[in-house]
Amino acid sequence: MSAFASAQAPRDVVMVRPHRFAPNPETIADNLFQPRTPVTPTAALAEAAYREVTAMVDTLTGAGIRVHLFEDEEAGRPDSVFPNNWFTTHPDGRVALYPMYSPNRRTERRRDVIDALRSTFRITGVHDYSVLEDEELYLEGTGSMVLDHDHRVAYVARSFRSHDRAVAMVCQDLGYRPVVFTTVDGRGAPIYHTNVMMAVGPKVALVALDSIPDAGERHAVAASLATTGHTVVELASSQLDEFAGNTIELTGADGPVLVLSSRALASLTPQQVEVITAHTRLLPIDVPTIELAGGSVRCMIAGIHLAPRQAPPGAPRQAARPVPQPA
Fold first, then answer.
1. InterPro entries this protein is in (predicted)?
2. Cα Rg for the chain, rounded, in angstroms?
3. I want to staple 260 with a disulfide (CB 3.0 to 4.6 A). Which of 9, 34, 73, 264 is the partner?
4. Tell me, what DSSP letter sits at residue 162?
């Protein structure tokens, strides 16, 4: 393992390359990061998304991050490019599967992905919370929860996608302290996923504290981040619209990198960049087509926080195989 490796900034990630990408019509009501005018699915749109994911995999791999890439050739799964919503992995070997708000996202949960991880990493148990869908209790993975694995804290913005009862159950089972709060975006609406308004790395956190209207809850978030020793970079509502909060810190061959979209980087001020780069290198990636679905690079990455099984030195980990181009 690299000397730079951190439980909070994994070296291995899962990504899904979609062949039939399209913005999801079932999520547009509460995902205000999607364009208000629905985007018509076309073959050209799917091909552009396919190319963006391929280029992102190449960029991450070039930085020394191991990408476990899975193909999705199925129709009817427009958001499959965002695997972080349906499962999480944890340093103690556990995997959790989550209840999804939109019915057409529930088939994104794939046993073959978990089985592939099991062949490479030590998995000690699987918690399946998808049965909570029957009670209309939703919690969409690391979209709903921004997890600080080092300090066992789960930051959660309430929404249709993040129900208090589901949060309490998952945090109790997995051993995280929940910090739950209400948000309001620049339009006065709740923010649908926590990971578009905050990101927590090993040492630096990006967070839109002004989007938390309740002073007590806002103080609780700030105090928790201070207690865990994080340097806080405060984001403005306008920067959230550019996906500046939808970032993830990973461990590359030469140390930590903060993965963010080119659009997000363009929205950061020089002062914010200076603070961030004191702790980690910026790795911008172009994903304008994917961002039409209301998520950015953080949503495209499911971090692997599991210990590897014993493998020969230099054994490849990237799950890559020749595949057909998108239909």
1. Amdntrnsf_FN0238
2. 18
3. 264
4. B
Q: In this structure, how many other beta carbons lie within 10 angstroms of the beta carbon of residue 215? A: 8
Chain centroid, CA 276 distance in Å? 19
Q: Does any domain span residue 326?
A: no
Residue predicted with more confidence, 25 or 194: 194
Residues composing the chain: 327
Yes or no: say if 76 and 107 are a contact pair by the CB < 8 Å rule: yes
Domain contains 136:
yes
319, pLDDT greater than 60: no
How confident is the model over 270-293, as pLDDT tens digits?
Answer: 999 999 999 999 999 999 999 998
The parent domain of residue 198 ranges over 12-304
Sequence-ordered strand ranges (E) for the chain: 12-18, 66-72, 87-89, 94-97, 125-128, 145-148, 153-157, 177-181, 198-200, 204-207, 231-234, 248-252, 255-261, 281-285, 302-304
**Residue 311 is assigned to a structural domain of this protein:** no
Cα–Cα dist 223/78, whole Å: 38
Domains contained in the chain, number: 1
321 lies in a domain? Answer: no
Write the pLDDT tens digit of every residue in 166-209. 999 999 999 999 999 999 987 788 888 999 999 999 999 999 99
Name the helix (H) or strand (E) containing 143: helix 141-144
